[in-house]
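Reopening: Peptidyl-prolyl cis-trans isomerase still failing for me.
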Amino acid sequence: MTHDASTKPEIDAPEGPAPADLQITDITVGDGAEALAGSTVNVHYVGVEYDSGEEFDSSWGRGESINFPLAALVRGWQEGIPGMKVGGRRTLVLPPHLAYGPAGGGHPLSGKTLIFVIDLLGVS
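Support: Ran it again with your exact input. Result attached.
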């Protein structure tokens, strides 16, 4: 599967039970600079709930990428983005303990397994 980095990715509804561990799948391997654990990343992303397939967030919807230190993001991103190279598109499936914690944790997405498709646009 290839992608056009100028278009929002489509996420197909998953089948089967949600995974208990972080799943990392490269859709496209980039050939630019590599993201490291201490990097600040510039990304475009879309996030959907695993069970419902409902989109809950998307930088595409806001019309601009985001720039964040990896250390400030949920643990699944902290573990799933390092090693990714600029120009790549990667799918991360985050179980609740790597996203927003167990159900009742106070965040609307607590207790939910989340799927993100991330385009790495830059690292610093």
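The domain at 23-123 is CATH 3.10.50.40 (Chitinase A; domain 3). If you still see a failure, please send the error message rather than a screenshot.
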